[in-house]
Specification:
This protein is an alpha/beta fold and 349 residues long. It folds into 2 domains: 24-145 and 333-347, no CATH class; 157-330, Glycogen Phosphorylase B (Rossmann fold, 3-Layer(aba) Sandwich). Helices cover 35% and strands 13% of the residues. The protein is globular, with a radius of gyration of 22 Å.
């Protein structure tokens, strides 16, 4: 299946945005809660005007952008711990007073506001925010994204597989082919892991196939020794739920990620997950309880995790524990309670 090439944006200056400070809803609000604001929605000047209203501000972080000079993920760079500048990972001509330093300086001005609460979606991101030079003196509280567990829930695997014309007696490794070209998504390690898996356990894997949703180039999967079942690009939620339910295991080989929705969705559907020990992923996957947390960038351990989950683990126990993890930690009821307490605290109640 041929994929559509979409731009991958790693660095945002936030120079363009809408001024909402005079919006009637903003004027009536007791608390202003910001989520994703990049790519033309709110500029740093827009945020500064909202802060100038004097109302309590809560900012939910979905990546590292709020406390860096402009990047959404810093890779191995730790300049954000001091003051950004000399941005080697992303800028073509890095130097001490480059765009990242200018962005850092502007954020230092904007986020000097005292009545500001920072809410990362994962404890991993929260720890980064607490260490950062921009947010280290702010209140930082980790609250995950919610998921509707009444929608994302387990369906009978036999029924789900028949829906996609799959063999109900086979085992399926599910992979979401989103931005395969993005190095952060770790596709190279996934591909290498599958090759190792087939080499080490060829006899056991005769009835194991790949299940892929999303758009991709056929050449990306060239040489992989598994039959590939492509579900295409899925947008209907009920069909997405069936895809997770049809799988034996969901694999996410990301090298840098916050709190991936795909992991949450898979767990809610009772599908164990295998992923690397990076970002917020090990907070979601409880090792050998709801899946397998593989050593970072180890194709060998990723392969071992896939094999363990499918062939060695107490599988039905994994399924039940995966579902329970999603209900306990990520249900809308659980997340709403946490935010309600934050709103009350922000207002001083």
């Amino acid at each position: 299946m041929k994929k559509i090439n979409l731009p991958v944006l790693f660095f945002s200056q936030a120079e363009l945005g809408v001024d909402l400070s005079n919006n009637p809803l903003v004027k009536e609000a007791d608390v202003i809660h910001l989520h994703w604001i990049n790519f033309g929605f709110l500029s740093l000047n827009s945020i500064q005007k909202l802060i100038a209203t004097g109302k309590p501000i809560i900012i939910t972080l979905h990546d590292m952008w709020t406390f860096t000079g402009g990047c959404h993920y810093s890779k191995d760079c730790t300049n954000y711990l001091r003051a950004c500048g000399n941005c080697l990972p992303y800028l073509k001509h890095p130097h001490e007073t480059d765009l990242s330093r200018k962005g850092w300086n502007k954020k230092a001005e904007v986020f000097g506001h005292k009545n500001l609460t920072i809410v990362p979606c994962s404890e991993w991101l929260a720890s980064k925010a607490r260490q950062s030079s921009l947010l280290k003196n702010k209140k930082v509280v980790s609250v995950p994204n919610p998921i509707d567990v009444s929608v994302f829930k387990p369906e009978d695997k036999t029924v789900a597989r028949k829906f996609f014309n799959l063999n109900p007696d086979k085992k399926y490794i599910l992979f979401a082919a989103m931005k395969v070209s993005d190095e952060r998504k770790g596709f190279a390690f996934f591909k290498s892991g599958l090759e190792l898996l087939a080499k080490q356990h060829s006899n056991d894997l005769q009835d194991t196939e790949l299940l892929i949703f999303g758009l991709y180039d056929d050449q990306d999967f060239a040489g992989i020794p598994f039959k590939i079942n492509s579900l295409g690009r899925l947008s209907d939620i009920s069909t997405i739920v069936k895809a997770y339910s049809a799988a034996s295991v969901f694999v996410i080989p990301s090298l840098e990620d916050n709190l991936p929705n795909t992991v949450m969705e898979a767990l809610a559907c009772g599908t164990p997950v295998v992923g690397f020990n990076t970002g917020g992923i090990p907070e979601m996957i409880e090792h050998r309880k709801t899946g397998y947390v593989a050593d970072y960038k180890s194709s060998e351990d990723l392969a071992a995790g896939i094999y363990w989950t499918i062939f060695q683990a107490p599988y039905e126990t994994l399924v039940a524990q995966s579902r329970q993890k999603a209900v306990t930690d990520y249900s809308e009821v659980s997340v709403v309670e946490k935010y309600f307490r934050l709103y009350q605290e922000a207002k001083g109640n």
